[in-house]
Amino acid sequence: MGDTVCVDEADGATTGDGRAVDRAGRPLATSPRVIAAMAQKLFVEKGFAATSVADVTAAVGISQRTFFRYFSAKGDVLWVESAAELARFRAALSAADPDEPYQQGLLRAVLAAFTWTPADEQWARDRAQLVLSEPAVQGQFSVILSQWRAAAAEHARRQPPAATAEVAVVVGYAFVAGLLAANERWVSEPSRDLGTLLAEVLAMVLPAVSAP
Amino acid sequence: MGDTVCVDEADGATTGDGRAVDRAGRPLATSPRVIAAMAQKLFVEKGFAATSVADVTAAVGISQRTFFRYFSAKGDVLWVESAAELARFRAALSAADPDEPYQQGLLRAVLAAFTWTPADEQWARDRAQLVLSEPAVQGQFSVILSQWRAAAAEHARRQPPAATAEVAVVVGYAFVAGLLAANERWVSEPSRDLGTLLAEVLAMVLPAVSAP
DNA sequence: CCAGGTTATGACACTCCATGCCAAAAAGAT
DNA sequence: ATCTTTTTGGCATGGAGTGTCATAACCTGG
Question: Half-sphere exposure of B87 toward its Cβ, with a 13 Å CA cutoff?
Answer without folding.
Answer: 6
